[in-house]
Each structure stands twice: as structure tokens, then as C-alpha cells.
Amino acid sequence: MIRPTQIAIPTLVRVKEGALDRLGVYLKRSNHRKVAVLLSNGLASPLPERVKQSLKDDAIDPVAWVEVADNDLESTARLFADLPKGVSAIVGVGGGKALDVAKYVGFLTRLPYYAVPTSLSNDGFCSPQSSLTIRGKRRSLSAALPFGVIVDSAVCRDAPRILTLSGVGDLVAKFTAVRDWKLAFHAVGESVNDFSALMSDGTIFSYMSHPAIDIEGIRLLATALMLNGVAMEICGSSRPASGSEHLISHALDATSARPRLHGLQVGVATYLMSILQGANTERIAGLFDATGFWEVVSSDPFSRVEWLNAVKIAPSIKEGYYTILSSRDVFPEVEQLLNNEPRLVRCFE
After folding, report:
1. pLDDT tens across 36-94, in order?
2. In a 3-state reduction of DSSP, which class is residue 174?
3. Cα separation of 258 and 137, whole Å?
4. Model pTM?
5. Where would a tag sit more exposed on the chain, N or C end, judged by fewer CB atoms within 10 A?
6. Is the pLDDT of residue 1 over 50?
7. What's the CATH number where 132 sits?
8. Do the Cβ atoms of 110 and 124 come closer than 8 Å?
9. Range of 323's domain?
């Protein structure tokens, strides 16, 4: 008999204007009186002050208040070891590094973790992995999904536009990732969790119903990125959210003289891979047209030479990870596309 798998998904989810100012309320409801707050180093004012005031209003004591500058495993382990006694929850505020470190500290302590992203640049704020560096190299380490996800839609709307467009790029990657997953099933017999694939695929269409950077668009984008994390938790792998497009981005991170935002790299790679896969290309292009994604990328174009090198390296990034890049020698096609496909030409120099 096949027994149902139990998964831990976020219990508290708030995606609305003013959610940041109610952080204390949400923590108090779960009887958290002493918390550790890990926030992005240099987080723009008045966001840190709003967090402090919210905690003060509900008599929540931030017994640890740490600005996170580095996301290396050694520093994260020290934070875990130095946590004051009595902490009952870990709160991560900001973006990227701070949320990954806070998530991993929460995982190590087995304490509830509350994710409070102040921008939506990727799906990492609610994923079952933490991206940390070990001896200078980025690694994805197993972690737990947040107990709570608190997204202030006004705060994220007002974040730098390039960060939101990075999130859009990471979201559309689910088109090519799911297709790569199904290619792996047909080519090498890799099992596909249909529910995870359906959930991940569906999140993109949700945002496509209102592809804007306003309160409603931010609500849809935040919800979509959060559900991508849940889809990964359900199937126990990154397959529903990460495919050939992420392999190219990882290769760029390792070799580029100036790696760009994860979602910008992934977004362009998604469009490129969709052409090779023969599916969803115009949907992706339309979404990028509607949001202004193309304009942001073309204002600071990528290196064509670096990308061609990354495409060569990408299939070796994850051993045994079958994608469209594994199916044939795609390099001649990619070179032709980067040199001639109108939308891609403007993204490179």
C-alpha cells in the first residue's frame, strides 16, 4: 500500500498592503515573545524601523537583531550557535542572502521560520532549499519551508523594478523546467509528480492574467512564487521550478566576469530554451513585453561569448539531470539564435 506523503507547507500566509506593520500581530498569535530577526545588511529605511515598531507594539522582544552581509555556511553556523536562549521563532526580513541564512538557521534550530521578503526577485523566499556558499562556491542545502510567509505588497511594489522583473524571469522558468522534467521522463524514465508539475505550470498563468507591477500584480507574483516553492516540497526536488534555464544561469554564476540577477539570467535562458523545446515561446515573449523585461535586460546587455560558454558547460552542472541540453548538441542552434533571433539579439553585446 502506498502511504500518503506528509509535507510541511506555510501555515500563515499574508500577502497584502501593510502586512509588514502587522508582523508583531502575527508572531503574537502564535505566542512568540522572543524572536531572532535576521535582515538584509543595509535594508533601506524605513523598513527596519517599521519592523522594530511592529514588534514593539505587540511586546515582541527581538533578542537577536542581526544584519546579514554574507551567506556562507560558516557564518550561518555561528549565528545558529550564538542564538540567545528563549528564542521561539526565526524571522528573516529583506531579500536573497538574509532570507537564505534565516531559513537555514530556522532549519537547524527546528524553530518556526517567518519569511518577510521586501522584494520578489526569485522563488527562494518559500523554497525547501537555502542557497549558501561553501568555500566560495554556492551550494543549495536542504532546508524547511517557512511556517509563515508575510509579503507587504506595497513594499514589494515599491522595490527597485529590476528586482521584480527578476522575479518574473524566475517565474516563467517553470514553463521550460516542467517541459524538461517531462522530457526526462520520456528519455530516461525519471518519475514525474503530476500534481507538482501542474501546480508549477499553473502559477505562471495566474500572473499572466494581470502581468503588472501594481498591488494586484505583486499579489499574484508573490503567490505564484510561493506556490513554486510548495511544488518543490511536494515532489522532493527542484524539478518543477528548475531545468535547463537554471543550469545555464548556474554556469554563468560560475564563469561570468559579472553575473547578473538570477532571474534576469534565468528569464532570458528560459526564452532561449523554449525555442529549442518548441513550446511556450510566444507566451514568454508576450509576458516580457507586458512587464518591460526586455527593456531592462537590453539596457545592460549580456556577453554573447560568456553565454555561449555557459551553454557548453551547463549540461555538466548537475550530473544525471536530463534536460533539452542533454537531448542533442544544441550549441549550433544557440549560436545562431543569439546572433539572429530579434528579441535575443538586443539582449547581447
Report:
1. 999 999 999 999 999 999 999 999 999 999 999 999 999 999 999 999 999 999 999 99
2. helix
3. 15
4. 0.95
5. N
6. no
7. 3.40.50.1970
8. no
9. 161-345
Question: Given a cut of 90, is residue 141 above it in pLDDT?
Answer: yes
Same domain, 113 and 251: no
Beta carbons of 49 and 184 less than 8 angstroms apart: no
Please report whether residue 29 resides in a domain. yes
For helices 281-291 and 161-188, give the axis angle rounded to 10 degrees.
170
Same domain, 139 and 194: no
Q: Specify the pLDDT at position 135.
A: 87
The torsion angle over the Cα atoms of residues 64, 65, 71 and 72, rounded to 10 degrees, is -40
Taking the C-alpha atoms of residue 293 and residue 296, their distance in angstroms, rounded to an integer, is 5
Q: Cα-flanking dihedrals φ and ψ of residue 215, to 5°?
A: -60, -45
- Decide which of 157, 181, 216 is a domain's last residue: 157
Please give the radius of gyration of the chain, using alpha carbons only, rounded to the nearest integer.
20
- Domain termination site, one of 108, 139, 157: 157
Taking each helix axis from N to C end, the angle separating 262-277 and 244-255, rounded to the nearest 10 degrees, works out to 140
Question: What SS3 class is residue 316?
Answer: helix
For the segment 273-277, the average pLDDT, to the nearest whole number, is 98
- The residue type of 79 is L
- What is the edge-to-edge ordering of all strands in the sheet holding 34-40? 12-16, 148-152, 113-117, 89-94, 34-40, 61-68
Asked whether residue 148 falls in the same domain as residue 165, the answer is no
In 49-96, DSSP assigns E strands to 61-68, 89-94
